[in-house]
Amino acid sequence: MTSNRPTTTVPIAVSASAAGEPHTVRPFAVISGAQVQQVLEGREKQIVELVEATYRLHGAGDSVNPPSYFLRFPDRPSSRIIALPASIGGPVRVDGVKWISSFPENVQAGIPRASAVLILNDHDTGYPFACLESSIISATRTAASAALAADRLSRDRSRPTRVGFFGTGLIARYIHTFLAASGWSFDEIGVHDLSADSAAGFRCYLEQSGTTGRITVHDNAEGLIRGSDLVVFATIAGEPHVSDPTWFSHHPVVLHVSLRDLAPEIILASTNIVDDVEHCLQAGTSPHLAEQLTGNRHFLRGTLDDVLAGRVTVPTGRPVVFSPFGLGVLDLAVGKYVYDEVVRSGELHVIDGFFHELRRYG
Ligand SMILES: NC(=O)c1ccc[n+]([C@@H]2O[C@H](COP(=O)([O-])OP(=O)(O)OC[C@H]3O[C@@H](n4cnc5c(N)ncnc54)[C@H](O)[C@@H]3O)[C@@H](O)[C@H]2O)c1
Q1: CA dist list (Å): 36 to 14, 134, 135, 328, 335
Q2: Which residue in 52, 74, 91, 361 has its CB near the most CB atoms, within 10 A?
Q3: Measured in angstroms, how far is the CA atom of residue 293 from the centroid of ligand 1?
Q4: Three-class SS of residue 274?
Q5: Distance of CA 67 from the midpoint of ligand 1 (Å)
Q6: Which residue is closest in CA terms to ligand 1's atom 26?
Q7: 115-123 long-range CB contacts below 8 Å, 24 or more apart?
Q8: Which pLDDT tens digits describe the chain residue by residue (362 residues)?
Q9: d(Cα 94, Cα 103) in Å, to the nearest integer?
Q10: Are 319 and 229 in contact (CB under 8 A)?
Q11: Atom of ligand 1 nearest to the CA of 202
Q12: Buried b / exposed e across 116-140, counting CB within 10 Å, b at 16+?
């Protein structure tokens, strides 16, 4: 049974905190996708700022973000479920885990590829206190990170006016929404997808979004890349399928969100920025393949946090590729933001009696 009780904590003392305050168990809440969307819609600028602050906290070491765990299935090789456990300090101060599935065949059945939940755990007691629908949170933090990177990585070059979307599913749509809401406008918007239906659907979305840029659907990858000075990769490719460095001779900014599209030769001919070095150099990403090919990491310029802090500059005479592995700390920060806003609105749905055995000896 659920109720809309505001988030009063259940006054059951389980231990004493360092400050001498008794620890209490918060009621467990469930936050639906509709509630998540209601909180996040129209708040793109705040979310980009939150993601920037979270990268800075992570860069300063005020987080724990172990490697993601990939659950794969011998009988369903194209599918996977990934666990992203994390802990973040600073003003957010929460632990938790995102559990996100990728089942690409869903798309043929008319439902999104990815589905997810996010569990938030109390910093003091470890008790889970919320389960949030998280496909929207995940897409939102990914798009906010991409919009932040597009801005910071293009600051020393002329601001891109021609964007190209390589792979046009849900993530591409969120990235376009975040770019537009962060003040980007484009003279030209290129679209390329292996699926004509996806390209047509994305074109339709763009037209409805009120964009003034000219929209071109490209049948071939080369035309899209050569015609774009900001390229967004959001495919589901498992192995590199773009391998000619000359396609990038105009030195575009590349948001390599899908991580496995570019052959190592292109990585090696570019300035490479990642979100986290240890995370990104694993699981067969293009930077990981480049490391395996060369035996070193010299091709990495730094992290986005290095760029934000001014420790690293981005030369203009080469393409710049941002490869974000996707950090659990970002999901936690956005998830906690959503939780706090739902609490503030008085619409938190609490599951009464979710934690039941709370007295040690009954
Ligand atoms: N780095 C991160 O933090 C992060 C976060 C979320 C999602 N992602 C990645 O973003 C990608 C896109 O996610 P989505 O939910 O939009 O997927 P989706 O299935 O909705 O869309 C992917 C699209 O890419 C197209 N495509 C596949 N291979 C292609 C190719 N070789 N060339 C051109 N088009 C191709 C498909 O036809 C499809 O339209 C996934 O790889 C996902 O893992 C990354």
Answers
A1: 31, 8, 10, 17, 9
A2: 52
A3: 25
A4: strand
A5: 21
A6: 235
A7: 118/331, 118/332, 118/335, 120/94, 120/95, 120/96, 120/332, 120/335, 120/336, 120/339, 121/94, 121/95, 121/96, 121/97, 122/25, 122/26, 122/94, 122/95, 123/93, 123/94, 123/95
A8: 444 444 444 444 344 444 556 788 999 999 999 999 999 999 999 999 999 999 999 999 999 999 999 999 999 999 999 999 999 999 999 999 999 999 999 999 999 999 999 999 999 999 999 999 999 999 999 999 999 999 999 999 999 999 999 999 999 999 999 999 999 999 999 999 999 999 999 999 999 999 999 999 999 999 999 999 999 999 999 999 999 999 999 999 999 999 999 999 999 999 999 999 999 999 999 999 999 999 999 999 999 999 999 999 999 999 999 999 999 999 999 999 999 999 999 999 999 999 999 999 98
A9: 29
A10: no
A11: 39
A12: bbbbbbbebeebbbbbbbbbbbbbb
Q: Which residue is it, tokens 């995370």?
A: 279
For residue 12, report the distance from its CA to the centre of ligand 1, in Å.
46
Contact status, residue 27 vs residue 125, Cβ threshold 8 Å:
no
Task: Tokens for 281, please give them.
Answer: 């150099």
Number of Cβ within a 10 Å radius of residue 173: 19
| C-alpha 163 to ligand 1 mean position (Å) | 17
Structure tokens of 201?
A: 């659907």
For ligand 1, atom 12: residue with the closest CA? 234
- pTM here is 0.95
CA–centroid distance for 308 within its chain: 18
> What is the DSSP track for 78-142?
T-EEEEEEEEE-TTT-EEEEEEEEE-GGGGGGTS-SEEEEEEEE-TTT--EEEEEE-HHHHHHHH
Beta strand pairing call for 230-233 and 162-166: parallel
Determine the atom of ligand 1 nearest the C-alpha atom of 170: 16
